[in-house]
Amino acid sequence: MSDKVYLQENQPEGVPPLALTGERTLPDVPEENYWFQRHLVVYQWIATRVDGLHVVDVASGEGYGADVLAGRARSVLGIEPNPDAFAHAVARYPRVEFRRDIAETFAERCDAITFLQTIEHVPDPDAVLEHFKSQLAPMGAVYLSTPNLLTIAPEGAEKSGNPWHVKEYRAEEFRDLCERHFDHVELLGLFHARKLRLHELAIRHAHWDDVHGRLGFTRPFYDRFTPAINVRDFALRAGDLDRALDFVAVCRP
Question: CB burial class (10 A; 0-12, 13-18, 19+) of residue 174?
Fold first, then answer.
């Protein structure tokens, strides 16, 4: 990322825009749209599974995900320690309750917990998952997502260059972490679909990025392509998890 400061665009009156720092994704930043849609599709998938439930979205960030869940859940509580993100979420998403707290200490009995794209930031993930299990009502579920080390980091590396990440996981490492704390673990992968899949194949087999780089239209291409990405350009499914972009785990005691 360059030194340019990217702020959220077109925020409602009275809502302070957040700056893109790389620690969390944001809506309303055209240059960030790929990552935002990549996260949003998982929230939308979970929302269809929490009808009528009390859900806690831990590390809720800007608040967009908690708001998506609130469209189907009986109630949603967003847990967010960052003061700027918390203030923004409270102002932007009035149908969600937000509380300043951290994953390791929040106390709220609930039917479901979401903890998306955050376990890789945590120094002691085992303690966090044990805490989550203690907060679940009977028959509850924890939904986790995290990037795949094999597709986010350079080949052979044990970590990407993201300074906010403590530990990035291979599929079996992530499954083992979840199964240390939960009896029932379903693990799915998030993959490119539609135009993102075509773009991926073009880069891999036709060296597309090299071609338009030599022709000098890389920036104009991505200025149009990136904002046009939407949730339909991703697919969540079982399959070859080593090739997945992200892992999504559904964990039940």
Answer: buried
Residue partners of 73: CB distance under 8 A and separation at least 6: 47, 50, 51, 52, 53, 54, 55, 112
Q: What is the spatial distance between Cα 160 and Cα 228, in angstroms, rounded to a whole number? A: 26
Tokens 């704390």 sit on residue: 181
Greatest CA separation for the chain:
59
Question: What's the CA gap between 198 and 196, in Å, rounded?
Answer: 5
Calpha distance 246→171 (Å, rounded)? 9
Q: For 185-219, write each residue's pLDDT tens digit.
A: 999 999 999 999 988 887 776 565 665 555 565 67
CATH superfamily, region 30-252: Vaccinia Virus protein VP39 (3.40.50.150)
- Show me where the domains of the chain are located: 30-252
Enumerate residues 6+ apart whose C-beta is below 8 A from 180. 126, 129
- The reply to whether the predicted model has a pTM over 0.85 is yes
Residues 66-95 pLDDT 10s? 999 999 999 999 999 999 999 999 999 999
